[in-house]
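Quick note —
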Amino acid sequence: MDLELDETQRLVRDAARKFAEERIAPVAAELDRESRFPRELLRELAELGLYGVNIPEELGGAGAGVVAYALAMMEIAQKCASTAVTMAVSNMVAEVITAFGTEAQKRRHVPRITSGEYAAAAFALSEPESGSDAGSLRTTARRHGDRWVLDGQKQWITSGAHAGVTVVWARTGGPGTAGISAFLVEAGTPGLEVGRPEDKLGLCASNTVPLRFESCELPEDALLGEVGGGFSIAMMALDGGRIGISAQATGIGEAALAAATAYAGTRRQFGKPIGAFQAIQWMLADSRTELDAARLLCLRAATLKEAARPFSREASMAKLYASEAANRITARALQIHGGYGYVRDFPVERHLRDARVTTIYEGTSEVQRMVIARKVLEG
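Predicted structure written out below.
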């Protein structure tokens, strides 16, 4: 792993940083308070190439690679974690279609994602009774003449109300993972019903909804990949998605530490800045160390994926460590702020709320430990 960034990676990181500072930071708190999906902001983000960082240029992407994507995610997440998760899922769906779609599917959907013509893209795997155990999903897809008919429900779908296209997993065969297939469902398809947005603790400017499919008819060419091949598509997508969430968590942690460091230098108690006290210094030291470790784990996984080498274990390690570190770091940052950290006039309470879900979505910390342990035992 080369710790020096190449020119493309630096350019992508710097463009994301500039956009985050100039366009996202001034409105992030307002978006959070109003639980407002930032459609126009996301279009601008897409126009910068940040909806398709690892997508080939011929499909409208930046073709900059996985490391550049992770760096961009860190920058966006520092200013608004909600915007970052919308970006993460849209990139993930664009990659899934690019990797597994037919030429027609790729040409139809990927440029619309990368350009921002689609406000977002969505990934519909979880269900009300199927979360970590994705193989137990109940949504069905049956053939009806030359069409597919979807019936069932999905839960916790990021950007589900705004997605131009959603990848939906459904059971086309018997029980178990071998009976699962993936489909591309476009916005406005009859039989697709978008539920009430969830009233969440954090990531309030990210849209999260349930989806319902009731006799939802799809053309035959809506099938993504092979019949019965959907579960492997989902697992490969989630491996890559975990790199994005580790980058998001690292970015949230960076924002919290920056706020805490600045506050520790200006807040005075007992006649000196609170940063002069060892208790505060050790909180800052632990946070800085953990963030550097999280960043390195994330970039290691990104480097392996970019080199087309196995990266499942490393992605799980990055996601596990970065998400749990972000929760510790945001809690310390709030503690350093004291009572001021508990009010919305200061950003650390938002960072703490936003960090909490990173240990849950894209595979819980417990699932990451299962993945890592299995790889360790395999030798």
